[in-house]
């Protein structure tokens, strides 16, 4: 017996436990329920269901029923100190690890210890292809993780019959899948299990999708004895909550991945795009929008969020979104509104388009999304990479340089002077550009270049 966190944990081998005469006489063939009842370790009947017996702080093992009676906890506090704490910690750990893979060793380590195992892993396996891998593991050397993925996934003795793993929540021990005599004759045992001193396994099905299955796997050394029915029952009760935590974390991770990809995509757009909160604050903005807001005096950021300096006075987007900006009120149907902001020095005005979030039926907090703001600056040079034009339209490098200058608004003579070429040479380049881009007019060419992928700020 060992002391573990104030509780006595039986670390004897299965053979030693079975040989105790005061617990089991001879070859005890009673059911798991009868054995646990006589030992004070198992479950008690409750209709057609079983109630788990859990360890408590004083070292006793009792049914988690709140109320009086000998052997039962006096309050819910005892229950939470037992299985409730384990469940909460592990399920939240599955959720967090699904979003941050670096946390998997910690959460798998807690499950490994709760089941008195020596190693634990999340295994993915495709029965149709006969391949799989240890997605996450603890107490398994990286060399064996690689060897499993490259070869022994096909030799896994437990995963030879897919019909055993069709339903999420299924819990199986290695003894239910293959007999000991057959196991020790396999290469999987000789070259993968035995070198790690692993023998007994407990498997729980987390997810299934077609021929693909995701499993929780726990392993013990041979001399520790097989997993008991109590271990299977604990894993069986944990699996639904672990699956929910895994799904929730996976969904959140995918949402975060999509959000990151969308923000990165917005950053390459040549037009400024900003997401405004209901209070007018900027929740997010792409690179072009940030550059324009930082450099233009007509736009300002104050305590009331983003605003404009117009000839008629200052305008705050917060007031517009709240419907208190005079004539400029958002349409209830969510239609857009445009602004033209004049600038000094003969520069063309900024153009702004604000698109309120359509679903405004519920009361929103200040930092909830309120509108999308598009900002156009006709004075900003078109940023086209000539290398993209070479790859996209098969232009020569000289032709690509001419095309970039034309897209920026230069005339042919200006382009020739800028490049140090004659006017006739630039005209010849333009004819080749027309042929390769499928255009026949300079205006059509410019529109093709600035509205296509070549106009992205990659």
Task: Report on the architecture of this protein.
Helices cover 39% and strands 21% of the residues. By secondary structure, the chain is α+β, with helices and mostly antiparallel strands. The chain has four domains: 2-74, no CATH class; 82-255, Beta-Lactamase, CATH 3.30.450; 268-376, 2-Layer Sandwich (Beta-Lactamase); 386-455, Winged helix-like DNA-binding domain superfamily/Winged helix DNA-binding domain (Arc Repressor Mutant, subunit A). A five-stranded antiparallel β-sheet has the order 8-7-11-10-9. A five-stranded antiparallel β-sheet has the order 13-12-19-18-17. Strands 14-15-16 form a three-stranded antiparallel β-sheet. A hairpin with an 8-residue loop joins strand 17 and strand 18. It starts with a strand and ends in a 7-residue tail after the last helix. Mean pLDDT is 80; it is low at 1-80.
Question: Descriptors for this entry?
Answer:
about 450 residues, alpha+beta, Beta-Lactamase, 4 domains, five-stranded antiparallel sheet, 16 helices, 19 strands, about 20% strand
| Rg over CA atoms | 34 Å
Tell me the overall shape.
elongated
**Which percent band covers the strand fraction?**
15-25%
CATH superfamily of the largest domain: GAF domain
Q: CA-to-CA gap between the ends?
A: 65 Å
Spatial sequence of strands, sheet with the most strands: 8-7-11-10-9
- Briefly note the structural class of the backbone: alpha+beta
Total discrete domains: 4
The main sheet comes to: 5 strands, antiparallel
Number of helices: 16
The low-confidence runs, each spanning 5 or more residues with pLDDT under 50, are 1-80
CATH topology-level fold name of the largest domain: Beta-Lactamase
- Helicity level: 25-40%
Count of β-strands: 19
The overall pLDDT, averaged over residues, is: 80
CATH arch. level architecture of the largest domain: 2-Layer Sandwich
CATH class of the largest domain: Alpha Beta
